[in-house]
Amino acid sequence: MIVKGKVALVTGASSGIGRALARLLAAGGANTALSARSAGPLEQLSGELPGSLAVPADMRDEGAVRHMVEAAYSHFGRIDILVNNAGRALHGALTGVDAAEYRDLLDLHVVGPLLAMQTVVPLMRGHGGGVIVNVSSGTTLLTLPGVGAYSSSKHALNSLSKVARRELAAENISVCLVYPFVTATNLGGGAAARGPAGTDLVPDTAEYAAALVLDAIESEREDTYAAKVPGGRPG
User: Fold this and answer.
1) Does this model's pTM top 0.85?
2) Domains of the chain, start order
C-alpha cells in the first residue's frame, strides 16, 4: 500500500518503534492517528507532525481501545492502516513469573490488538480494504530462557494474525507480522538490551525496526524479519 494520503493508526506511538514509525509515515505523506498511554509524550509528538491526531489509550482497556479506533475514524473519515505496536517487556524464569503480571501482558499483547482489529475491520471493509501490521518479536523464532512469558504472548499474537490473514484475504485486508530483533527502546532497555538470556547483543535502533514496519505496510508482505533474527528471512 502506498502510504501517501492514507490514514494510519499507530499504537505505542509515544516512544521507540511507534514514535519512529509515526515520523516515517508522516514523512511519506500519511495522515497519522497516534495512540499510547503516555499522553504528554504523545501530544508532543503530535505537535511535531502537522495534521496528526493524538488519542491516548490503554490497550488493556476494552472501552479505550474501541474509543481509540472510533475517534481516529471520526476525525479522518477512514482508517487504511492499523499498526498494533504497543508492548512491554517481561523477563525472568517462568517459575518466578507473577500470574497477574502475565495476564496484564496478555491483555496488552493479545487481547488489545484483537479488539483493535475487531473494531477497525468493519471500517476498512467500508473503504475497500486496508493493511493491519502486528509487531511481534524475533524471540518467537527461538527457545530462550528468561523470555518465556513475553515470547508466549507474542506467539499468541502470531496465531491471531495468521488466522486473521486467511479470514480477511478475500476482503482485501492484509494482515502482516513484523519480527524485530532486540531494539534500543524503552521497551528493550536494561535486560532486554543485554539479550534475552543475558548475552551481550548489539540492539537495532528504533528507526531500523520502524523501517521494517513501513516496508511491511508498503509491500503487504506476510512476514518481515529483522536481519539479525536467527532463522528468519529478512524482508
Assistant:
1) yes
2) 7-225 (3.40.50.720)
